[in-house]
Amino acid sequence: MDHEGGCVCGNVRFVAAGEPLRVTICHCAWCQRRTGTAFGTEVVFESGQVTVSGEVARYRHVSDQSGRWLDIEFCPRCGTNLGFTLEAAPGLRTLPAGAFDDPSWIAAERQPFRHVFVRSRRAWSDLSPLVETYEQHFRP
Ligand SMILES: [Zn+2]
Ligand SMILES: [Zn+2]
Q1: What confidence tens digit (pLDDT) does each residue in 9-44 have?
Q2: CB contact at 8 A, 122 and 38
Q3: Which ligand is nearest to the CA of 121?
Q4: What residue segments make up the domains of the chain, in order of their start?
Q5: What is the CA(70)–ligand 2 centre distance, in A?
Q6: What is the CA(108)–ligand 2 centre distance, in A?
Q7: What CATH architecture applies to the domain 2-133?
Q8: What's the rounded Cα separation, in Å, for the pair 38 and 26?
Q9: Would the pTM count as exceeding 0.90?
Q10: Cα 90 to middle of ligand 2, angstroms
């Protein structure tokens, strides 16, 4: 089953083949800033499952905590968040749940779903009882 999506201006389109490994809802301060809201919702795939077409811009962020990089991808025309790759998880990439044309298949009942870094969760961002929560990352 292919899942398609893209940016708001239509410049970038993507197709994800098959099911994701997991869905991570990240409440860290960095995800709050890069998304401009309470958390990032990242659908995690193996890189080979995802095909991206159109011009994509990248920004490399180096964590001041871990010293490792994350490459954020976004549309250079409209700025839509298109997920990231990270040094800590080679061979994987994320796509943001909200950028799929029809995100209704993304559900806590269907995929492993986790809230991480809830230590920096905003008080106005409620947690679903269907989803596991971790103060920091689920990887120790
Ligand atoms: Zn765009
Ligand atoms: Zn985060």
Answers
A1: 999 999 999 999 999 999 999 999 999 999 999 999
A2: yes
A3: 2
A4: 2-133
A5: 11
A6: 19
A7: Beta Complex (2.170)
A8: 9
A9: yes
A10: 17
